[in-house]
Amino acid sequence: MGEEEWAETWNLFDRPPRKQVLPKDTVKHCIRGIGRLYEEADLDALLSGSGETVTKEEYLEALRKPYSEPEHTVTSAARAYDGKESGQLPEQLLLKVFSETNPKPSERELEQMMYGLEFSKGNIPLTELVEHLEKTNTAMDPSMQDILKWAS
Known about the structure:
Structural class: mainly alpha
Radius of gyration: 22 Å
Number of strands: 4
Strand content: 5-15%
Mean pLDDT: 80
Helix content: 40-55%
Distance between the termini: 31 Å
Low-confidence stretches: 139-146, 148-152
């Protein structure tokens, strides 16, 4: 997405007669609307040179700054446990992490969490683990919230 699309997004909010100025909160919606997944604090920092309103040029200038997508939470969480940076997790470590969530899962729940995971030489690639967690919604289960804390 380039400056032309950014300007079109701006114009959706800056209705005629165009004033070329929008409230900062509206500009944050514009930025998120083009797919930039900034945290609130990052948006505040990005727009820190502006007051309560932002000009179209300030908006475009902010979008010209380098941007990289935030890493998927579950992926970054799993990487936090990959001490060797191998891109894999050992089955025993995964079992330990799953079994130490709060509340502690029953044996049956633990089996369900592990069901469908395919290990090679006792390890599972992080990409497969993340896909499994998303597919089974395990990562969204309240008992699995501790797993998502890996990244923090």
